[in-house]
Amino acid sequence: MKKLIIHIGVHKTGTTSFQRLLRANQKHMIENNVRPIFELDRNRARRFNLFDLSHLHLRACLKTGARLRGQISELQEHEKATFEDSFAKAVNTHPEDTLIASAEVFCFMREETEKEKLSAFFAKLDRKVEILLVLRDLTSWKQSWENQLQKDPKVAPLLNSFPEEERINADWYYDTESILNFWQDLGKVHKFQYEDHDDICEPLVNFLGFTMQELRDVERLNKRKNLDAPTDIQSR
């Protein structure tokens, strides 16, 4: 059966670097029966972080940075259905055996209603779902995430004014067991620990059937040694 692989990484686990690899190597991957899925942003540019699709299935009450910055247009239910149907139809035109879709926002999902929405969406694609989940050391994860949020003037002043269940820096976000429990009901989960690899992108592309040597590499957006320094430029 054909596959849909969902890539999820919590903060600072190389998510953006992996998405940049998908962009840079899209042609080579398609030629080898693996298609990276992208969206179009407001400027009609390709975006390999599935920002809109992931927010579409995310509970509306959660105050993500994108929502607080006004980067997400909240859709009516019929508009969501139209968007989802159009996306599914476009994806179903692809003949490749493997599709790979990536979004950090997926790691915010916890609730049964979100699971039901995703399950219904995946059913439209008629593919076996597998998940690549990248986790990291809890202390480093908390530190880098708080540093990131404090640097955003449109997010930091507002976050702590919301109830815990609406905040993306509350304790529930760091509960790895709840992440695993959520995704295990949707497909087989392949778990990777960020600290176990010199380059986390390598085991991910290996899982897709490629080696780093055959792919066009991209500049990494951060280095391990200064990953959590508050003065660093923060990226996923």
What is the share of helical residues? 25-40%
Q: What profile does the largest beta sheet have?
A: 5 strands, parallel
What string, H for helix and E for strand, traces the elements in order? Answer: EHHEEEHHHEHEHHHEH
State the CATH topology.
Rossmann fold
Report on the architecture of this protein.
The chain is of the alpha/beta class. It is built from ten helices and seven strands. 38% of the residues lie in helices and 14% in strands. The chain is globular and about 50 Å long. The two termini are 32 Å apart.
Which terms would index this structure?
236 residues; alpha/beta; Rossmann fold; five-stranded parallel sheet; two-stranded antiparallel ribbon; 7 strands; 14% strand; Sulfotransferase family protein; P-loop_NTPase
In short:
This is Sulfotransferase family protein. By secondary structure, the protein is of the alpha/beta class.
